[in-house]
């Protein structure tokens, strides 16, 4: 991973953001959503199903998620993952991460169903992602979000 991951969470769900090269050696913005202390209680499994994420141990490319289902909005120094109902999750990011997201016009979203420590280091995150049967992914496009009054 090319920069230190930043981690912030709710009491039961953690998020980590980092930049790293994609398979084409292009700097790419990644976000990982995962349970912290216990196996997924079904919350993230339901998100995986509704977003149409693909399990990492499946053959083929990681597919884009339609912006009518989920999109990423960049706000100040954070990324917001937004559904039609509003912000699903938000996480602080770095300038480097934001630049990579804008440069690619998408982020890679990974959702894990196994627990991962809230303060996991890069090697623990890499090992977590290597357990591909517990991780699902999709490409999330960057989109401008307009506030409604």
Keyphrases for this structure?
3 helices; 149 residues; single chain; alpha+beta; 19% helix
Question: Would you kindly provide a brief summary of this structure?
Answer:
This protein is α+β, with helices and mostly antiparallel strands. It is built from three helices and ten strands; from the N terminus they run βββαβββββαβαβ. Helices cover 19% and strands 39% of the residues.
Detailed description of the structure:
The chain has 149 residues and is of the alpha+beta class. Helices cover 19% and strands 39% of the residues. It contains three helices and ten strands. It has helices spanning 43-51, 95-104, 122-130; strands spanning 6-9, 13-21, 27-35, 54-55, 64-65, 71-75, 78-83, 86-92, 106-112, 135-141. The strands form two sheets. Strands 1, 2, 3, 4, 5, 9 and 10 form a seven-stranded mixed beta sheet that branches. The chain has a three-stranded antiparallel beta sheet with strand order 6-7-8, with no helix packed on it. The chain is globular.
């Amino acid at each position: 991973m090319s920069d230190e991951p930043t981690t912030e969470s709710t009491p039961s769900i953690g998020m980590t953001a980092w930049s790293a090269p994609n398979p084409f050696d292009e700097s790419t913005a990644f976000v990982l959503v995962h349970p912290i202390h216990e196996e997924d209680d079904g919350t993230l499994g339901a998100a995986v199903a509704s977003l149409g994420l693909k399990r990492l141990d499946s053959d083929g490319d990681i597919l884009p998620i339609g912006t009518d289902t989920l999109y990423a909005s960049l706000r100040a120094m954070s990324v917001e993952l937004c559904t039609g109902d509003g912000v699903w999750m938000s996480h602080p990011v770095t300038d480097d991460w934001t630049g990579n997201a804008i440069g690619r016009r998408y982020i890679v979203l990974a959702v894990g169903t196994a627990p991962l420590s809230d303060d996991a280091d890069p090697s623990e995150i890499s090992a977590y992602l290597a357990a591909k049967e517990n991780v699902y992914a999709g490409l999330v496009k960057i989109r401008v979000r307009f506030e409604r009054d």
